[in-house]
């Protein structure tokens, strides 16, 4: 979101104490830039909010939002847990030296091979999602003579007010064991009966880009009610209740996200009111940790003016490096990084370079007078940008740079044309 916090030096956008226009020159465009101190600060806010309310807790970064070695290393430095959802994310985290006991493995269709990989690498928790998986895991543990922590992912019947593709907690969902129909109880029975599985607790994730606290407070209440039910039936009390992620961020002025403090305080109140022995509370923020810290720098190229219509200003990237506008009608804001001190003169569509009419990065963007070669910085692109990037139209994926304390460091190289054909074979 455009705020007064955006710092500018000589009319240039500064990121983490570094001139963004220099970064564009040094590394080329499009370029993802992350302000690492913003990432650290957000993690520390979550932690201190829990410490203030005196709950036992764990913050687990949902790494699908941005999953490269360097970010896993930052998470290791910040001493948090991480979620992974695939063998590829698990491989990346392990390759980064991230401790396996702090990894939770999620997903609604983990393959046999992925489960074997998780077991052999001794991940901290496997988040069981369905009966097929309980069976697979049970077989693997039995053959490999291994034991492992598991949690049950539940669909508690709560739907968050967010985009349809971002809702996951309602009963009609592909994720988790349904509570209402008794699936959750059956799953719990199976897990408790398996001597190789240690049931750490229960999990639910109700969606993404959620703004109010209401959904989370309802969820906390529901999870306690479910726990009490299970206690009656199985004499089992969860060590951990995992409330998932989904905390919204401000992509533009209409978005009004909850602060970590507000949300955690309300949850803590709800939990304390409803039970004497509050389990350890885990949360899984993804977007809110890396989203606002990310910027994408593009070079402005062509322009199309149509009489009486909004002009199109095109950049050298688009849906290949940020699919969210095309996929979710996501809204972004941008600034012209080399003209921060110039006044706005028009509103334009910011178009990408991909051969799709839907490749519009920003529908209505106020701009100063722009020229080819200007640097456009799209804000808040840290989450689900690089991690969803692709090679449509055979465009190489951009490089990623981390900046902190006035220093910049390349953490992912730009893909080359050679990389693009490296898997292709002759015929
Ligand atoms: C995606 C996901 C998250 C993170 O969601 P954000 O909106 O990025 O905070 C957390 N938990 C689970 C299980 C997820 O699938």
UniProtKB/TrEMBL annotation:
Subunit organization: Homodimer.
Similarity section: Belongs to the Orn/Lys/Arg decarboxylase class-II family. LysA subfamily.
Reaction(s) this enzyme catalyzes, per UniProt: meso-2,6-diaminopimelate + H(+) = L-lysine + CO2
Cofactor: pyridoxal 5'-phosphate
Superkingdom to which the source organism belongs: Bacteria
Entry-linked NCBIfam families: lysA
InterPro entries, alphabetized: Ala_racemase/Decarboxylase_C, DAP_deCOOHase_LysA, De-COase2_N, Orn/DAP/Arg_de-COase, PLP-binding_barrel
Chain sites annotated for binding pyridoxal 5'-phosphate: 246, 284-287, 384
HAMAP family for this protein: LysA (MF_02120)
Pfam families noted in UniProt: Orn_Arg_deC_N
Functional pathway: Amino-acid biosynthesis; L-lysine biosynthesis via DAP pathway; L-lysine from DL-2,6-diaminopimelate: step 1/1
Stated name of the protein: Diaminopimelate decarboxylase
Described function: Specifically catalyzes the decarboxylation of meso-diaminopimelate (meso-DAP) to L-lysine.
Domain Orn/DAP/Arg decarboxylase 2 N-terminal: 37-290
Positions with a binding annotation for substrate: 287, 324, 328, 356, 384
The organism of origin for this protein: Companilactobacillus huachuanensis
Enzyme Commission designation: 4.1.1.20
N6-(pyridoxal phosphate)lysine PTM positions: 64
GO molecular function: diaminopimelate decarboxylase activity
Keywords per UniProt: Amino-acid biosynthesis, Decarboxylase, Lyase, Lysine biosynthesis, Pyridoxal phosphate
Transmembrane segments: none
